[in-house]
Design a protein that fits this description.
Layout: E1 6-17, E2 20-31, E3 35-39, H1 46-53, E4 61-66, E5 69-70, H2 79-84, E6 86-89, H3 101-111, H4 116-129, H5 145-157, E7 163-167, H6 175-190, E8 194-198, H7 202-207, E9 211-216, E10 219-223
The structure holds adenosine-5'-triphosphate (ATP).
The site of adenosine-5'-triphosphate has 13 residues, from strand 2 and helix 1.
Length: 225
């Protein structure tokens, strides 16, 4: 029902690291409600592609649009707004270990201009969404690796992103815990947020089938299901 609205468009995009072309002539689209995996060997360019989408790498050739922001003409001052419309999750949890779960989430809400009276409700909502409704006051070290990663996902959802971009989100987690993270992603996706997830974990692809984009020999190709 959401499938007609594009949240990500790449059109003949070239992905560079410095002067080195990593992926050439990349064209694909992700619509609201889509779930897509990004696969490919180590060094094939998955991370470089994702970094281009959240403007950590500049798009030098071709066109790109993410959450309505054109990447090829993006100004540095637009980057924070773009990143508010994208949820970003990496393999290594980057929580502040010297503050509670709640304070980790508040840090983002403060930085993105939320009113104080709205913060507690939003924090409760996102923690509920990732199945950690009672973790508010806990310190990160009191949580397991999988729970910490779920806090990271909750943090990425705070500003109701149009798309969640995840780079190896289950990379350090065992199969059972990876599965839990995946179920959280599925629930987020079912609620209408698009998901683009780079992974080496082919078990997940079999268990949770979705679109598959593969980085291979300097190109991105979509595998036909
Ligand atoms: N900061 C950088 N400067 C120059 N080249 C880089 C940089 N980061 C990555 N590269 C190169 O870009 C290519 C693609 O790397 P990238 O990290 O995007 O691949 P990947 O598919 O994400 O790999 P992995 O599965 O190991 O995460 C590699 O050849 C890598 O050596």
């Amino acid at each position: 029902m959401f499938s007609s609205e594009p949240v990500l468009i790449l059109n003949h995009a070239d992905i560079y690291q410095g002067t080195k072309l990593i992926l050439g002539d990349v064209s694909f689209q992700i619509n609201k409600g889509d779930f897509a995996y990004l696969i490919g060997r180590t060094g094939s360019g998955k991370t470089s592609l994702l970094k281009t989408l959240y403007a950590d790498l500049w798009l030098q050739n071709g066109q790109g649009q993410v959450a309505g922001y054109p990447l090829q003409t993006l100004k540095p001052r637009d980057i924070p707004q773009l990143r508010r419309k994208i949820g970003i999750v990496f393999q290594d949890f980057q929580l502040f270990f010297d503050r509670s779960v709640e304070d980790n989430l508040k840090f983002v809400l403060k930085a993105t201009g939320w009113k104080k009276q709205d913060m507690n409700n939003r924090i409760a909502d996102v923690l509920m969404q990732v199945g950690l409704g009672t973790a508010q006051k806990k310190m990160p070290h009191q949580l397991s690796g999988g729970e910490q990663q779920r806090v990271v996902v909750a943090r990425a959802m705070l500003n109701e992103p149009q798309i969640l971009i995840a780079d190896e989100p289950t990379g350090n987690l065992d199969p059972v815990v990876s599965d839990q993270i995946m179920q959280v992603f599925q629930a987020i996706n079912n609620a209408g947020t698009a998901v683009l997830m780079a992974t080496h974990n082919y078990d997940l692809l079999n268990k949770y089938p979705a679109r598959v984009l593969r980085c291979q020999e300097g190109q991105v190709i979509e595998l036909k299901g």
